[in-house]
Design a protein that fits this description.
The structure holds two protein chains of two kinds. By secondary structure, chain A is mostly helical. Chain A has helices at 6-42, 48-52, 66-97, 104-116, 119-131, 139-164, 167-175, 180-208, 212-215, 235-244, 248-279. Classes of the chains: A mainly alpha, B alpha/beta.
């Protein structure tokens, strides 16, 4: 047998290195390009009016996206209020009580499927359930759609974070006579607090950029959100509508909205990162 | 803990010597039949799924005595004591059969109130696991859970528990610091304080000093001596010197069965069973 030549080994090594380096550069370059375009084109839209005024018809000077900004914040907040608790308790079920239950397998399976479901399908589902039945679009339907997207995300991270808490801690609590539910809420939650908060923040970040589910539910509106019981302005659908329009001032607004959403998601992600690092 | 490499018979003598040294301080009646039985175990079998880990364990534990449980790793020591407070029920597929009487009450019966049982039977684990709260809260938590008490009494009780677990001097200035900031040995004493604060009747200790340094171990051994005034103590240990030093009775477990049970000096000086002798002289294990 002939020994493999050193040359062959080295050239293979070089090729693998080159391909992987190139791939990562392509990935990063695209990201930087997108970010650059959004900042470069979006920053010009930022002014006082953008944050405080209602939209104007095309061609009319001034105006802003105050209603859409507020709408996105309110819809996302309501979605968080619905989705995070349900997700948390689903995660608690899977991690803490599922061990003794035959239901945990199916629940985990369905949750994984839900997580992989395209968000537009969830939008259509909520459209059928909450829009068709009452015959109008509404902000709360949008919040429900976003909440449905959040539930499996929060459930998964909750389960993972609770599984990181060592069983010895649960045993010590139970051995002291602490009831099971109190062990979970008082002691296991405290131990996993940062992880749970991080998971919820990332889920919020994830849905705050969703467009498709809102297109079928909250739709969009040039007016203030009110009680969310009618079509409700929001940033993502505004981007969709304005970017497609032939008017340059609307297109400009769409860039501004894109930048704002990107900054928001970045902010939430950084908070999550910060929390997670503080833990160690 | 590793056995020293000296010849096994020497070790045997030195262990017997340990028993002798402290015998003077032991004032118990040497006749077991005259002592109050705190826990009485009859034909206890235990299963992990289909794997049987305990076989017909029968043993009496005497009140206000320290009973050591020794035996090679994996022989069922932990499994055995984890039935006394039914902590194994946290896991699916773990099942105990037989009878465990705590002052005559059937521990394994479905009517037994688990919260009450675990208040009466405290447990210290191998790995110290303070709750993710302050030192004060760690001890106060169980007190608030089991008693309705005012703030002043709570503070007094916490102080008392920390004193009894020989930790007070080290933590009195930092009661509001997280319990996890303490050293391993201190954490273990915090867990002991947490357990004794609620005034249990029995204290189960599963290798409480195997994860901590020798100085802290010595402190915990002193503590065990002091605590048996009030509590019935079951000490699982794979350290035979420790068993010889602190226990009144010793049970030798092997492959899920109780091979021999008796007064510690008898077990270490004149073991009745060949297996026991082989184990304590370091011929296996
Ligand atoms: N969670 C478990 N699942 C299955 N088998 C276990 C489990 N824990 C312990 N065992 C088995 O039960 C036997 C006794 O274990 P254990 O009580 O932990 O021994 P010891 O405490 O004496 O070292 C061992 O054979 C071990 O493999
Ligand atoms: Mg063990």
């Amino acid at each position: 047998m002939k020994p493999r030549s050193n040359w062959t080994r080295r050239s293979i090594n070089f090729m693998v290195m080159a391909v992987s380096t190139l791939s990562s550069f392509i990935g990063i370059a695209v990201l930087v390009w997108v970010l650059y375009e959004i900042i470069y084109r979006g920053i010009g839209a930022f002014n006082w009016d953008f944050f405080t005024k209602l939209p104007t018809p095309p061609g009319v000077e001034g105006g802003g996206l105050a209603n859409a900004i507020l709408g996105t914040v309110v819809i996302t907040a309501l979605a968080t209020l619905i989705g995070v608790p349900i997700g948390l308790f689903a995660g608690v079920f899977l991690a803490e009580f599922g061990l003794r239950s035959k239901l945990s397998g199916p629940v985990r399976f369905v949750s994984n499927i839900l997580m992989g479901t395209p968000s537009i399908i969830i939008g259509v589902f909520v459209y059928a359930m909450l829009v068709v039945t009452v015959r109008h679009f509404s902000g709360y339907a949008g919040a429900v759609a976003l909440a449905i997207i959040m539930i499996p995300l929060v459930a998964r991270t909750t389960e993972d974070m609770l599984n990181l808490v060592p069983d010895t801690l649960r045993e010590s609590a139970l051995a002291l006579g602490v009831p099971r539910w109190k062990t979970t809420l008082d002691i296991v939650f405290k131990a996993a607090k940062k992880g749970l908060l991080t998971g919820s923040l990332l889920a919020v970040a994830r849905v705050s950029g969703e467009t498709a589910p809102l297109l079928f539910t909250a739709l969009n509106s040039p007016y203030w959100p009110g009680w969310l019981n009618k079509p409700t302005g929001n940033l993502t659908v505004t981007i969709y509508n304005y970017a497609m329009s032939p008017y340059t001032d609307w297109q400009q607004m769409a860039w501004g909205a894109s930048l704002l959403i990107t900054l928001g998601v970045l902010f939430l992600t950084l908070c999550a990162r910060f929390l997670l690092q503080e833990k160690k | 803990m590793m056995m020293p490499a000296e010849k096994s018979d020497n070790l045997f003598c030195s262990l017997a010597g340990l028993v002798d040294e402290r015998k003077t301080s032991t004032t118990v009646d040497s006749d077991p039949s005259k002592q109050a039985v705190k826990i009485s175990v009859r034909n206890l079998n235990f299963f992990y799924g289909h794997h049987q880990a305990l076989f017909d364990n029968t043993i009496d534990l005497f009140a206000n005595q320290v009973t050591a449980i020794i035996g090679p790793s994996g022989c069922g020591k932990s499994t055995h004591i984890r039935t006394y407070n039914r902590i194994f029920e946290l896991y699916r597929n773990q099942k105990a059969q037989g009878q465990i009487l705590l002052d005559g009450e059937d521990v394994l019966s479905p009517e037994m109130n688990l919260i009450d049982l675990r208040k009466r039977v405290g447990m210290i684990f191998q790995k110290p696991s303070p709750f993710p709260m302050t030192i004060f809260e760690n001890v106060a938590y169980g007190l608030r859970l089991h008693y309705r008490i005012g703030r002043n009494e709570l503070a007094d009780r916490v102080e008392m528990a920390l004193k009894r677990s020989a930790l007070w001097d080290e933590v009195q200035d930092k009661l509001d610091r997280p319990g996890t900031e303490l050293s391993g040995g201190q954490q273990q004493r915090l867990c002991i304080a947490r357990a004794i604060a609620v005034e249990p009747e029995v204290l189960l200790m599963d290798e409480p000093s195997s994860a901590i340094d020798p100085v802290a171990t010595a402190k915990i051994e002193d503590l065990i001596e002091a605590l048996k005034e009030k509590y019935t103590i079951v000490l699982v240990t794979h350290n035979m010197q420790q068993a010889a030093r602190v226990s009144d009775y010793t049970a030798f477990f092997y492959n899920g069965s109780i091979v021999e049970f008796g007064r510690t000096e008898q077990i270490f000086k004149k073991p009745a069973m060949k297996q026991t002798e082989d184990y304590i002289t370091g011929r296996f294990g």
